[in-house]
Amino acid sequence: MIGRRQRVSLHPYVPRALTAAARRSEPKETGGLLLGWTDGGIIVVRHALEVPDPSATQTSWTRSETRANEALTKWLSEAAHPWLGYVGDWHAHPAPVGASTTDKRCLKKDSRVTQKSLVLIVHRSDETLDVLTAQRGSAARTTLITYEEINQKDQTS
């Protein structure tokens, strides 16, 4: 079931970072964490942090909670930015396929443990990005808006 609507904005750096990580890991999957904040109901994704999976294959990547938490803690302490926090996950498929049923199920499951919406980005081998969101266990209708739209909104406020 798809519930509420959720807007997401990707900083221009994010797609480039995902593509670079996907290319480095070919022919295996890779993935990691999305960092950003929420601004007026819009999830702003500012950074993508890679969390390698030594057991990754051409069809799977698993996020180790231990490695992810260590990487997140280290990155956030170095960034020292008051708005930045965990907003979701990403991973790259080394084939032109989008989010799997398992990907969608995991997103909904993970969103049950937080009050905020979570984002999942799946990077396809053709560089298409699938951007999905969920909140409290339910998928949301996701609208991708440009980073420039966020900046224009801030300048007119």
From TrEMBL:
It comes from the Bacteria. Residues 14-122 form the JAB domain. Pfam families: Prok-JAB. Keywords: Hydrolase, Metal-binding, Metalloprotease, Protease, Zinc. One of its GO terms (molecular function) is metal ion binding. Signal peptide: none annotated. One of its GO terms (biological process) is proteolysis. This is JAB domain-containing protein. The lineage of its organism: Bacteria, Bacillati, Actinomycetota, Actinomycetes, Propionibacteriales. The keyword Zinc applies. It comes from Nocardioides mangrovicus.
